[in-house]
Amino acid sequence: MEKIGNKLLNKVTFVLLSILSISQAAAEETIIKQEKISFEKCLKVIATSEDKLSIAPKIEEVSDLKRVAIFILIDGTLTITCDGQEGNVTVSTNTD
Prior knowledge:
Blueprint: H1 2-26, E1 30-36, H2 39-53, E2 58-63, E3 66-73, E4 76-83, E5 88-95
Antiparallel strand pairs: 1-5, 2-3, 3-4, 4-5
């Protein structure tokens, strides 16, 4: 009888861990907004966000026409990607 209980407990534990792993992976990045915008205006969005959040972002200069600003927040990150070649801005979040 104990073997059946242990097997059931092991299966339930496996299922719960699988669900937690899948939900954590699915919650990684959420795109909030994506729209066409000039590269210069996109850089202003980063500057304005820095002023409003009162947090200096980590800026990654991927190329001459692509910048990624990462704001470290209490519950995750806010990322603003300026892509001058595609002519768009993408704002996304990543929760911890």
